[in-house]
Amino acid sequence: MPQKVVETPYPLIDADPHASRVIRYFRLSDFAFWGAATGAFPAALYFWDMADPSKVKIRSQLRLGGLLGFVGGFLMVYQRSSFRFWGWSENKREEEMDRKELTERARLGLPLYGESPQPEWVQSAAYRNSAFSQLKFHAFPMFNLVNHPHHGTDPSKYKGEDNS
User: Fold this and answer.
1) Minimal CA–CA distance to 14: which of 81, 76, 75?
2) To which H or E segment does residue 98 belong?
3) Would you call 1 exposed, middle or buried from its count of C-beta atoms within 10 A (0-12, 13-18, 19+)?
4) Structural element, H or E, at residue 157
5) What is the pTM of this model?
6) Separation between Cα atoms, residue 38 and residue 73, nearest integer Å
7) pLDDT digits 0-9 by tens, 51-64
8) How many Å apart are CA 112 and CA 99, to the nearest integer?
9) CA pair distance 108, 98, nearest whole angstrom
10) Cα–Cα dist 129/76, whole Å
């Protein structure tokens, strides 16, 4: 299947990054955003109850609001990190981390994007299902949990460098 080429303002790092890479590349601002989202949801419920009192204790609702804020904040931060992999937002830090990580893997003779026990057709199906899935988190949260060779970049750029 031909890969869709999308023009982006910043360099493409990975068209379908593995979930562990997306999480490892979180920035401090991402964690701050996640924490703010976690606290904002129950705070909004509390202030809403102050404006229009419900006459019942809202402790359980606030706890549920905290959980929803935590999960929703994680999905938003995951999406922000994915945007940097795709080159849709500023990604200089991620580009340097990627180059360092994958150049080291190439130097050691390891597969750039990890090994997978699945057959090629399963890897291809996993890629087709998870590519740009971060844009559909509102409907169905799906993460790339399969190592596969489909990443939309030229792997030879990592083989020719020397980190000495």
Assistant:
1) 81
2) helix 92-107
3) exposed
4) helix 156-159
5) 0.84
6) 6
7) 999 888 999 999 99
8) 11
9) 15
10) 20
| 122 vs 48: CA distance, rounded Å | 48
Burial class (CB in 10 A: 0-12, 13-18, 19+), 112: middle
DSSP string, 49-78: HHHS--SS--HHHHHHHHHHHHHHHHHHHH
Structure tokens at 130: 């998870």
Tokens at residue 22, please? 């997306």
Q: pLDDT of 111-146, one tens digit each? A: 777 777 888 888 788 887 888 888 888 888 888 888
| Cβ-proximal residues to 86 (8 Å cutoff; 6+ apart), any chain | 6, 8, 12, 13, 14, 15
